[in-house]
């Protein structure tokens, strides 16, 4: 099962002049390489899924897989077992079942809309889903993760921004990975959200050959800050099948993050995090999270006190040509 090639004309034009952008969307033969510790479902979504399309891993947060579609498919996608799988968008029956579940789980404070890209839904469907969620509890925080402002910024119309704003408290989480993605078009999209009163934060995936240099990341985070977007997470690559050519070894990641920390203000610096393999959950990454190492593994302390293995991949890094 491989991820299709799909990109918007807008992003393709950008990628024509920026190899770091082209690398994010151009299929590579290296995607056919699956390492023994890589899986189709590295976050173990399936093990925390009480209903189809609902992932309830943390008591106070639940994630809805709204649609399997994106406007462009990222070659490093960690949810590639679901993305573009043909499951399309939430059926009305699935939506009702999820709303009923959430009604019975008042401990859920935050609902995350993800996928795929939730902004692939038509405005009317999105508005209906949002009002269904808002009707549950007035204080429920909705978090919408999207790469649309990056790959299809004209989708963020004033009408769409008003639909989102009507469902506040709603946080938009964008996914900018490289300063070349900070175009006037993307800025207009972000500005449309902000002027409607929607807070915007960004998560970036650390990607070898794309953004694994401190100058690149510093320019990205400073640019976002200038737009009014708080860099939230810098994510170490997940162990998704066929994505090892995008991962940086953890030792490089720590060095890079140390340098970034000394360069950037607290507002500009995102939190370094990783989803622990085997369903260990998302944790902040510090050098001190590494309890011990051997030739093959880092042993990371999970929030439950358990030890989780994350591979040492220095040898991969040294062997492969840096495509950047
Ligand atoms: C990442 C994630 C969240 C949100 O985690 P935060 O640390 O609050 O950003 C919630 N649910 C699932 C299943 C996730 O993978």
Determine the mean pLDDT: 95
Gyration radius over CA: 19 Å
Assigned CATH class: Alpha Beta
Strands, total number: 12
Give the strand order of the largest sheet, numbering strands 1, 2, ... along the chain: 1-2-3-4-5-6-7-8-9
**How would you sum up the major sheet?**
9 strands, mixed
Helix content: 25-40%
| Residue windows where pLDDT falls under 50 for at least 5 positions | none
Going by CATH, the homologous superfamily would be Aldolase class I
Strand residue percentage = 15-25%
Strand-pairing-aware structural class = alpha/beta
3D shape: globular
State the distance separating the first and last CA atoms: 27 Å
Number of helices: 10
GO molecular function, one term: metal ion binding
Keywords: 4Fe-4S, Iron, Iron-sulfur, Isomerase, Metal-binding, Pyridoxal phosphate, S-adenosyl-L-methionine
Modified residues (N6-(pyridoxal phosphate)lysine): 282
Domain Radical SAM core: 56-267
């Amino acid at each position: 099962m491989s991820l299709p090639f799909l990109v918007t004309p807008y992003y393709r034009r950008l990628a024509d002049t920026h190899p770091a952008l082209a690398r994010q969307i151009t299929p590579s033969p290296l995607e056919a390489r699956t390492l023994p510790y890589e899986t189709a479902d590295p976050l173990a979504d399936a093990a925390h899924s009480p209903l189809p399309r609902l992932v309830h891993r943390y008591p106070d947060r639940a994630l809805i897989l709204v649609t399997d579609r994106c406007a462009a498919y990222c070659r490093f996608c960690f949810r590639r077992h679901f993305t573009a799988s043909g499951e399309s968008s939430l059926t009305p029956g699935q939506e009702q079942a999820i709303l009923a579940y959430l009604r019975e789980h008042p401990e859920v404070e935050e609902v995350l809309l993800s996928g795929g890209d939730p902004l692939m839904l038509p405005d009317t469907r999105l508005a209906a889903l949002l009002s269904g969620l808002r009707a549950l509890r007035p204080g429920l925080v909705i978090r919408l993760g999207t790469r649309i402002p990056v790959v299809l910024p004209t989708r963020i119309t004033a009408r769409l921004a008003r639909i989102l704003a009507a469902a506040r408290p709603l946080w938009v989480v964008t996914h900018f990975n490289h300063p070349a993605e900070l175009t006037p078009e993307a800025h207009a999209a972000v500005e449309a959200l902000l002027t409607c009163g929607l807070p915007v934060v960004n998560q970036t995936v650390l990607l070898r050959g794309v953004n694994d240099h401190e100058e690149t990341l510093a320019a990205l985070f400073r640019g976002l800050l200038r737009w009014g977007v708080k860099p939230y997470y810098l994510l170490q690559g997940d162990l998704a099948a066929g994505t090892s050519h995008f991962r940086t070894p953890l030792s490089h990641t720590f060095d890079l993050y140390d340098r970034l920390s000394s360069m950037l203000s607290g507002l500009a610096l995102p939190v370094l995090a990783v989803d622990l393999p085997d369903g260990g959950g998302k944790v902040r990454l510090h050098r001190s999270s590494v309890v011990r190492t051997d030739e093959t593994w880092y042993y990371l302390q999970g929030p439950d006190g358990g030890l989780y293995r994350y591979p040492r991949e220095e040898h991969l890094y040294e062997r492969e040509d840096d495509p950047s």
